[in-house]
Amino acid sequence: MAIAVFIIAALMAIAGAVGVISFREPIRSVLSLVVVMIALGILFLLLSAQFVFVAQIIVYAGAVMVLFLFVIALFGPAREFARANLRFQSWLSAVFVFALLVLIWMMLAGVQYRQPDKTDLSTFGTVQSIAVGLFTTYLYPFELTSLLLLVAAIGAIYLSRKKVDDK
Amino acid sequence: MTLGGSHLDASWFLILSAILFTLGAVGVLVRRNPLVILICIELMLNAVNLTLVTFSRQLGNLEGQLFTLMSITVAAAEAVVGLAILVDIFHTRDVEDVDELSEMKG
Asked: Taking a C-beta distance cutoff of 8 angstroms, is the pair A27, B40 a contact?
């Protein structure tokens, strides 16, 4: 059962990722990315990461993607025409990316997977266990993240403000 | 590791993550539209999140999931600032190719 879910979600994710890089209209790329994110959410559930699943759906597939859709709907060029300034750019990037894939593959082949200790799945990944980690051991990183979000919000407001020429 | 009664190897998830990351890298290298390049960066970040959650489950350690939450937050901040910069540029002109944005190349 879990294998079937994994295969379906993995195929969804790969199909969505291929769609992201192959559609000419940016809006279709965004919608393909939503497919990838939902598929990854299913995989997170499979890996008993319930809270991460909820955050993935709400924050990523919800908020961030709507932000992308707004920007594309307001400003984005509707289509892009393939015209590389650099000759052989596609071939060069194919070679580099193949090298990257081989590198990751070799790294994965060298991993010694430790047999998991008895993981208590009734508490693993629940909101409570996440919160205990987030508000005890990782309290300072958590607070710094809120600072980061504040800086990002101020930066976005500053960058997209109406320019006033006060000369 | 055993998931829902059947055996699934962690390496399957890791290979899927590697494939997604590579596809994102292809997009960053090949596509011309700056918005699509940002989307492909989001795809790569998502692939890394899958790796973190997989190892979290494999090792029975919640820290991977906590790090994933941090990563989601940082990715949201990155998307906000990146899109704000693009909106600022789109206010003044239409950019169809990232290579047009080369004023700061020195």
From this structure: no
